[in-house]
Amino acid sequence: MDSKGILAHDMSCPHLRDGGHAPRDVNARRSTSMRTSFALAPFALLVACSSAPSSGAPAGENRPRSEPIESVGLALALPVATVAEAKATLSRLFGDAAQAGDRLTAHLLQPGLRLSALPDERTPEQGVIVLEMDTMEAEPRVVLQVPASYAYGRVFIDAAEVAFTRAEAVEASRPGSMEPFVLEYRSWSPNGGTLTVRARFQDGQKTLELDTTTPETSLRPDSLNAPAYGGEPWETLGGTVWFTLSRDEFDFFSTRAYGLSAGAAQNFRDFRLLPHDWLRLTVTPELAEERVDVAFEVLTVDGRRVPFARAPASLVAGEQFRANVFRMVANMNAAERAEPGSSASWRVPFYYDDPEGGGVVSVIAQGQGGVFRIAYAVEAPRRRLRDVSFLPYQGHVEVPETLEPPRRTCADVGSTEALRGRFRVRFDASRTVRESERLMHPLRGNVWGDVFRAEDVTLAGPRDGAVALASFAFEDVDATVVGAGMEYVVDAELPIGEYQILGFMDVDGDADESPRPSPGDPVTLPIGGYRLECAEQPVVVEFALLLPEGY
Question: What does the radius of gyration of the chain's CA atoms come to, in whole angstroms?
């Protein structure tokens, strides 16, 4: 694949419309450095908009049309051995190395998964990220192709490098003390799919994560495998960091952040957000306007300062946030004093969105098990990209001319209509069974089974108290050739109606006089049923799966 088919669209920095992602709950770890690091003013986790002017695009532009859609995802995590290794990989993906021509080419992520960074011949400002997958039949497919700018790529790399480096230093001095964080780069293309690259630190481990989906496609009969979204592609940066603190710490630092205390003159200026001290916060009270101005920078490993978002937060919304938090902390602490571990989990989010000033911020206070934490989940303004050509699904499904076999009369099957009859069964195996790497023996052996009324069986098996109306045991049944097995008559005359036939094949020869399947034996599943309407009713009983371990 090359980049010649990429479609061109000129982009500028659009209004940001979607909120940040709520954090996961994680096991809390107390950080004593937090005593000097909390501020209510929410800090963004990656850079502000590019210098390009806002497009003024109407809200909702990138929302789906009113039609059903579908997509298929693929996500994986890559452990990070060293910070230098992570930086080198990311740089060849969408950083300085890639822009200079040293790009990832069929980089093996896992067997059958290859990541590449292609040049975009229309512009030196962006590349195209491609994920190629070999199917289980080894057929290669492209499952993702999205544009990505080197500008946002460099910022993400700078932030990931310094954040990982700081985490290593904190863990080296005090193992287990570093609070978790996750940084994200996101690209969305209606033609090529979505990509999220994450740099995550949690429980002492560094990982890079790739989370992808195919393009969202329409499910309308006349538009299958066609784009369901309109609008232009965009990218953004975001992330979440966590802190643990007390009610008093929250009270003091949030009041100081708003310039409402005696220490207002010593407000946050180039404040180190420990333990994440690669983030620097400056809060400027604007009390006449009843708000504060919040600005952020990333201090890189080599000492450069990368500007962040700059956005206001109002005093009145901040007061309501504080009131909600105080109420929930008081409830939690009272419950814990009465009975440790009895408090209910809770969340108090504080959201604000300033697309011109710097993006979306969610400050999320949360309590669990008596521990009070703050998480900041943020997103920078969306930066527009040039789109790629449409990436359709590349698999092929053989659809038979008719999905249901034609109705066969009793005469067609060599029998006669009757009020009672017998099943004439032939045993076969599903493709899943025949191709399973767990199949260790030929599909040949003794078969045992039972016949139940269909209403007496669920997917989990016979209902409690259900009684088999007939049982059978056939020796040396051969199902090695698809559709070529012998027929066997179940020697029980049953009323016409709907039935379910359950059984197994003993391929390993270990069944005894009270036969039960062992792991690896082919077994039936109660999906569908069998209608008895002739004096002798031919049916095919399919072994659906090999019995898993532990059953």
Answer: 31
Contact 97, 113 (CB under 8 A): no
Tally of residues, the chain:
551
Sign of CA pseudo-dihedral 488, 491, 497, 502: negative
546: β partners: 522
Residue 248, C-beta contacts closer than 8 angstroms, at least 6 positions apart: none
The owner of tokens 């979607």 is 18
Helix, strand, or coil (residue 253): helix
| Residues 517/504, Cβ–Cβ less than 8 Å | yes
For the record, the structure tokens of 257 come out as 């952040």
Contact by Cβ (8 Å): 233, 189: yes
| Residue % of the chain over a pLDDT of 90 | 57
Contact (Cβ atoms closer than 8 angstroms) between residue 452 and residue 470: no
Angle ∠(204,242,46) on CA atoms, nearest 5: 100
What is the C-alpha to C-alpha distance for residues 13 and 236, in angstroms, rounded to an integer?
10
Beta-strand pair 545-546/530-532: unpaired
The residues, ordered by sequence, that sit 6+ positions from 30 with a Cβ below 8 Å of its Cβ are 244
Q: Are the beta carbons of 263 and 271 closer than 8 angstroms?
A: no
Task: Report whether pLDDT(332) > 90.
Answer: yes
Determine the Cα–Cα distance for residues 47 and 36; give it in Å rounded to an integer. Answer: 24
Report the SS3 class of residue 339.
coil
**Confidence category of residue 297, pLDDT binned at 50, 70, 90:** confident
> 47, 158 in Cβ contact below 8 A?
no
The two tokens of residue 441 are 């023996």
Determine the Cα–Cα distance for residues 196 and 183; give it in Å rounded to an integer.
10
**Residue among 104, 190, 90, 207 at smallest CA distance from 150:** 90
One DSSP character per residue, 28-56 reads ----GGGGGT--SS---SS----SSPB--
The confidence score (pLDDT) of residue 37 equals 31
Q: Which two tokens stand for residue 13?
A: 């920095």
Locate the DSSP E strands across 507-547: 522-523, 530-532, 536-543, 545-546
Confidence (pTM): 0.74
Statement: residue 261 has pLDDT above 50: yes
Structure tokens at 283: 């809060």
Residue 165: predicted pLDDT: 96
Which residues partner with 349 through β-bridges? Answer: 364
Q: Cβ distance 387 to 9 under 8 Å?
A: yes
On the CB side of 1, CA atoms within 13 Å amount to 28
Strands 494-495 and 107-110 turn out to be: unpaired
CB atoms within 10 A of CB 451: 21
Please name every residue paired with 423 in a beta bridge, in sequence order, or none if there are none: 537
Q: What are phi and psi of 159, to 5 degrees?
A: -65, -40
Under 8 Å CB-to-CB from 320, ≥6 apart: which residues? none
